[in-house]
Amino acid sequence: MKIAVRYQSRGGNTRAVAEIIAEDLGLKAESINEPLAEKVDILFLGGGVYKWDIDPQLKEYLEKLDSNKIGQIVAFSTTGGMKKAITRITEYGKKAGISVNEKQLCLKVLLQGHSALGREGGYLTEKQIAEIKKFTSDVIAGL
Length: 143
Ligand SMILES: Cc1cc2nc3c(=O)[nH]c(=O)nc-3n(C[C@H](O)[C@H](O)[C@H](O)COP(=O)(O)O)c2cc1C
Hints:
By secondary structure, the chain is an alpha/beta fold. It has four helices and six strands. It has helices at residues 13-24, 56-63, 84-95, 126-142; strands at residues 3-7, 30-31, 40-47, 70-79, 99-100, 105-108. The site of flavin mononucleotide has 21 residues, from helix 1 and strand 4.
């Protein structure tokens, strides 16, 4: 089974989550700027929430989703609280005719990674890392 991990991340939190997911799968997480080299059965796709919505780059990526290249999407996000990235990934995936796994990870990071507040992103707690690892193994077990 072919699996890939792609993320959109401004501050590093979503990238850090993507890297943990990918590492557990023996893969390399790449940003959404890295096109899929081949058709994948499962695409783990994540992004952050900024000013009540997703980053325009992620939106552009979602608008170009191709059901000939992706069998199923597994959505993940880091966020201050809003589930907007999960909602958008799900919405666009379905619109493109791609099934979206019912399991999703919406990791609340509160103020971790708010560079405007002098907080650097990408540092996850042990508890968050455990949650991400459990999510990945639950998804794989459910396939
Ligand atoms: C400029 C900015 C705006 C944000 N706006 C929101 C928001 O409207 N709602 C929310 O739930 N989280 C918001 N957040 C929190 C981010 O979703 C959270 O920090 C996320 O981890 C960012 O992902 P990244 O570090 O991968 O870029 C915002 C963060 C920043 C830096």
